Amino acid sequence: MTVLRMSTAALHQQGLQGLMQQQQRLARVQQELVGGVKLLRGADDPSGMARVQQMDHLLASLQQQDRNATLVEHRLRSQENALADVGTQLDRARQLAVQANSPTLSDTDRASIAAELRAVRAELLAIANRDDGNGRRLFAGTRDGVIPFADNGGVVSYAGDDGRNSLEVSPDHWVVDGEPGSEVFLRVRTGDGIVRGSAAAGNTGTGVLQSSGVVDHAAWTGQSLRVEFTAADAWRVLDGDGNELATGSYADGATITAGGMQLTISGTPAAGDSFSVEPAPVRDVFATLQGLVDALEAPAADPAARAWRSNRIGAALGDLATAQDHMLSLRANTGSRLAALDNAADARSATDLTLQESLSELRDVDVAEASTRLALHLAAIEAAQKTMLRVQGLSLFDRM
Amino acid sequence: MTGMLGTGTSALLAFQRALGTVSHNVANASTPGYSRQRVDLSSRPAQVEGGHWVGQGVNAASLQRLADGLVFARQIDSSGELGRLRQLSSLSDRVDALFSDPATGLSGHWSEFFNAADALAAEPGSGIARSQLLTSAEQLAARWRTLDGQLSALDQEAGQRLQSAVADANRLATEIADLNRTIHQAGGKVAPDLLDARELRITQLAALTGATTVEQDGMLNVFTSGGQPLVVGTQAMQLATAPDPMQAGRVQLSLQTPGGDVRLPSATVSGELGGLLEFRERVLDPARAELGRMATAFATAFNDVHRSGVDYTGAPGGDFFSLAPPRVDPHAGNGGNAGISARIDDVGALTGHDLVLRFDGAWTAVRADTGEAVPMTGSGTAADPFRVAGVAFEVTGTPAPGDRFALRPTAGAAASLRVAVSDPSAIAAAAPLQAAADPSNLGDARAAGAMVTDPAAFAGFAGATIEFIDAGQYTIDGNGPFAYVAGSPIGDAAAGWSLSLEGTPAAGDRFTLSPTPPRSTGNGNALALGALDRRDLLDGGTRSLTDGLTGLTARAGADARHARLSFEAQGAIDAQVYAERESVSGVNLEEEAADLLRYQQAYQAAAQIIATADTMFQTLMAAVRR
Asked: Does domain A56-190+319-351 have CATH number 1.10.8.80?
């Protein structure tokens, strides 16, 4: 480089410029160190700043997912508790039904059992109307602001709906926040879950259906069957269309097998009595309990009426057992959703960590590096100051 | 002896002159624009005395001003660029700060708003969650308005700076013209300080407008960097600001010439004025238009989704945000009485560029900044309006040929963004359609999702019942049967809905579809609202809104960075030019001190010559007295 002739003003300007430049750098390092952030403006790294904002947005949505997951978890736990309570009540109902099935009980005993069953039913209704502590009903589907179940003279109506809300609890990971009450309490399968056997209402004999079920799924067409006693000791089995499938003779405790189905009947049926087995319908659990109560409270003066009662209690026992299974499988569902929430929490924290790391790399100041720069700039500014003083102090005029 | 006296006197006079010049240099060592001066000494021609040449002393031949015309040309060039980039950089920095500082940018409120929408999806029935969404929507809209307001304030500030810079430039041009006259009248005997004064003013003018100079008869003609004359000889042209005919409330730069006012576009001027114009055109206008585009896309998409939902009272959702339509300003000189009403037609096709619509028998559209043609479709009728870059417009009245309109699809849209919903229960969080399985269904199928596929067709929906004849066939309201394939949705395209099932239906199973009733806490629509930040809505459905907003930050940052780097580079160039000028014209005090010593000694010596001549004369007189 050609050495130019320096003017005094240029010399001064050069020193001043250097000093100011060092000051600017020093101020920058100071700002970085004080704030802990090196990316202060978009101009420092435009695309980096855009990425920082995107990651901030993602982090914020992760935090929201975290809050949502807490809500869902609370709701699912409340449901799980409620379902456990439902299970306890159904257990109790089943015990009572078994008790009530004893022929030695007096009418008073049965009346008190019926009263207790009413209490169980009322308790179930209360559970079904429970809220999650925040005023949101647990079993109203997507109408959780209304009280879903109402008892109108033994018939329970449902004001909720079938909706399920799902929520994103970690990126692209969705969890359903519960089961609607219609699914939990209304659409409950009866019988053994596949078929349900029952005695015809007008039976005059004392035949009691002890058990019924499908033994050969291949042979069962899915239709209902009817066992009809043509005489006190003879039966025939008809399918849903009235075709005769089998006939046989009856003895107390006989097992009748036809069309893949097996029934055991005891007692003494009269000619014309019939028993039927149909694909298990769904019925609400309150109606099942109500039916049991009604059976227990019905006067039973003659053996036929007692047999009718036994049949009703026996059917109700099966219904209750299936309802318990139903509640258990719902609990298992809820449990697996809670497990999914745990997984989502892991996924969230992993994503969060990755994002925080990238964000920190882009935005946060490396203290060691910045401190080194600070020391460097401090030394430089000192040098600039000293140089300026020395250079400015030199003047030929001083020597004259 | 008389020769010696004469010689001594000439030396005294010459060194006095030289010492005077040195002190003038020293006195002006810190004067801006000062060029150092030097006295050129030359010996007087010798005379023949007695057959010998005898020297006659010294003359201060001339006063030289040390300056370099080429360095000066580079200096005004650099000064113009530096002025331009200083403005561009400092103003761009402020735009960048607005977008990237979390305290003023959109990003914080943007995240909060979508978090509130997600929280609403978690608790659709909660009044708190609903109010929270409204509050954060208000804050987001307010932030959008504030940002636009601050950009608009920057625009006004740029206008004011433009006006004050024009006043300064006019004063300088007048002074230069006056100096030109004085220098011209002085002819060859012009004082160097006058030249310095003129150069200083030209440098200052260049910092405002950018300049090139051409010398003519000792006068300097000054032109803008685009070649427009500012000073011609003794005549100064006046710059002026005039209202922009295409945009009320904005001023543009023009030059008053004898032939009328000439508009100066940003490309024809440099310096501070050029920087201001360039900032407005290249940084501010695109940033405002882009900010408005984001606001438009966001509000339009959010409204669309919100309208497709059902609120807590069971009513269909209304507009969540309100937004002004695209702005159309007629040119002030339009001859016809045509008016244009425009609306947003396709959010994905919006570009963020301002357009000029021109009528020449037919309508054409060009970009306001580049003049590039923009394709336009439609016939201009109500049924088939003109469509250009995502905007549909209709013309009323009769345009005259040559009429122009400025169409700003999104500029300023952000300023009009407001929340239209005030009642928390009017937030449409639920999907409009719900499905229910009949309680007596024997199959284990359940409704997994009911969706509206065509909002227009769905509008009159009153309900539908789906009944399965067997696991593979169903009827809709008794019509059919239709084949059912497990996993694929059941739909009625004409009625605009579809239903998907989980599990296997049995014969006789029924599902009823109904419009969502009041008090629903379904979150179907809230989820769609909360996912809008990730949906690709911009640029023909290729970029999400979050991408768009962060892109806006990146763009403002890149503009600022570019301007800053250019400014720093120009600063280095300017320092180099300054050093060169100083090396030629700057005063070095050491040098002057040395000269002072030199001339002082010479002066003393010259005085000694006169003293010696006197002594010689006295000696002679003493000799002849006897």
From this structure: no
